[in-house]
Amino acid sequence: RSLPPPTKSGPVSQRESVVSYAEFTELHNDLLEQYCVCTGFSALKHMLIQHGSILLQEHASSYLLLSCLEDEMNGEREKMKTTARNSQVLTNIAELAKSLKRHPGNVIGPFFARVEEPEHYKSFQEGVDIFVNRIIKRAVEKRKEMDAEAEQEVEEVDLSSLPKEERLGPGGLDPIEVFESLPLPLQEAFESREMDALREALMKMKPEDAQYHMKRCTDSGLWNAA
């Protein structure tokens, strides 16, 4: 097998890294997908011996990590576990190569020989389980982040660009008109999106005034009472 072309020395810019990863995944997408779903150590060993110059690159590990996260977020738990196991094979080979001060391609055989031993297999599987749990946790966090971003995008819609009848709140009031009618401290509190600022502004008002304005905010959709 021919060796991969030498890489440039020196730091790599973020743009160069992104471009090279995109090019790498586009060029080797089919192989990477085959590796993700490969089952059995014998088949994995064969793939790595045949395509180690590609699969042992850092971009391949990044691809598998993202695939794990995507599978978990799409509800494909079993597929995620297979990809996670195969990802940890790459990680363990890289770590073994580093400890032995050898090229990763030269420790493929030794790794699979070791993992056949019960003690080493148990340690490997424990590492896989830890990695799987990290993926599950990260998927939950990522989903929350995406929901928050989507909610923020909805909140940041320019209401003035919508016809009045489309922007009316649940109580039939126009949020723009209601906002403009609020006392300045209450307007600033809403713009800051900080609950402490809103509480402080309301506490400085007469109770009946605070109740009046918050009722209008709810009816216009500026405030979600839930």
Characteristic key phrases:
disordered N terminus; mainly alpha; 74% helix; 226 residues; 11 helices
Describe the structure.
- The protein is an all-alpha fold and about 230 residues long.
- Helices cover about 75% and strands about 0% of the residues.
- It contains eleven helices and no strands.
- The longest helix is centred in the middle third of the chain and has 38 residues, at about 120-155.
- The radius of gyration is 28 Å and the shape is elongated.
- The termini are far apart.
- The model is unreliable at about 1-15 (pLDDT under 50).
The proportion of residues forming helix, as a percent range, comes to over 70%
| pLDDT averaged over residues | 86
- Total helical elements: 11
The gross shape turns out to be elongated
Helix and strand pattern: HHHHHHHHHHH
Distance between the termini: 64 Å
In percent, how much strand structure appears in the residues?
under 5%
The stretches of 5 or more residues where confidence is low (pLDDT under 50) are 1-17
- Strand elements, count: 0
Q: Kindly provide the radius of gyration, computed on alpha-carbon positions and rounded to a whole number of angstroms.
A: 28 Å
The secondary structure category is mainly alpha
Q: How is the main sheet built? A: none
